[in-house]
Amino acid sequence: MKEIVLGKSGIRTVQNAFGVLPIQRVDRVTAVKLLRRAWEGGIRFYDTARDYTDSESKLGAAFFGGEGGGKVNGGWLEGQGLSREDIIIATKTHSKKPEGFRKDLQRSLSELNTPYVDIYQFHQAQQCYRPGDGSGMYECMLEAREQGLIRHIGLTSHRWDVAMEAAASGLYETVQYPFSYLCAERDMELVRRCRENNVGFIAMKALSGGLITRSDAAMAFMTQFDHVLPIWGIQRERELEEFLSYMKETPVLTKELRSLIEADRRELSGDFCRACGYCLPCPAGIVINQCARMSLLLRRMPYEEWLSEKWQGEMKKIEGCLNCRQCASRCPYGLSTPELLKKNYEDYKRVLAGEVKVSV
Predict the structure, then answer these.
(1) Secondary structure class of 163 (helix, strand, coil)
(2) What is the pLDDT of residue 73?
(3) Taking the CB of the first residue and of the last residue of the chain, which one, N or C, has fewer CB atoms within 10 A?
(4) Which residues of the chain have pLDDT under 70?
(5) Which domains does the chain have, with CATH numbers?
(6) Angle between helices 28-40 and 237-245 (to 10 degrees)
């Protein structure tokens, strides 16, 4: 597994990172076990956020707590003869006001049980914060860095225009944005701009929310870029072991994998939901970021769960769509979401009626 450098941050890490969001769905013991196994397997970069419920706490317990995951000075890493410098932690604030920024940062440091974070990021940014823009937010980043609470400044967004502005601004050392082999040409343009401006690129949703089912193809695609770091969302041991196997035998873009990627691009080209969740909440209670891509979920993942009584009920909510188009106005990808929901619902009903067969 090759090492990459995240732009001008100078952070050097293997091109294989842990997206910590999913561990909020597992118990503390399981989370601690997964995180420590990841470190033992060679993963050094861990990305989390204040918004990910107890994920920061579990991450802190795994590395800076005791053997049982408790909060103690020193912790597990020190017990291995290592130090804080031997791990890279990135976290985020969703706050849009300085007082919220400072509160979030202090809470993150407390939950992580660490004196500093390596990269602090504006989470799902709707604008590219700049010094003197009146918000005071970028000034908070500078203040935190001067105080030694953070080391590098980053931004995450699903909005291409915001990410592109950040990449070109000279103010951010890293930009985090959805990126996979299903990306559009403009996404590639963003990756190129980051490289030109020596900005590290952190790739979220590298499996496109589960629509990419071959992790070896996804990994091989990423190896083409020496400034791009994929963060894989992991919550199961078998998933972790799959990505750890690539530390020794990293997939390469063989003819077979290129053919698979091209086939996926043909199938998933055009309008499809990326499951970013910007459309939520829905006034009618529709789980838009799953229901609007149900046809793909049925055909690309084990389908039984999606035909359960629970999901039949969730899909039926589409009948109550208010056509308020709030979802469409929020979608960073410009999708006509109400129409996409109706199209997926009609297909779903045909599958339930046995008129259309699905198999994985």
Answers:
(1) helix
(2) 55
(3) C
(4) 66-74, 269-270, 359-360
(5) 3-263 (3.20.20.100), 288-352 (no CATH)
(6) 10
Please, which residues bridge with residue 71 across strands? 65
pTM for this model (two decimals): 0.87
Q: Which residue has the tokens 């629509």?
A: 211
| pLDDT score, position 74 | 64
State how far Cα 245 lies from the chain centre: 21
Between the alpha carbon of residue 345 and those of residues 284, 329, 336, the distances in Å are 15, 21, 15
**Cα 180 from Cα 224, distance rounded (Å):** 12
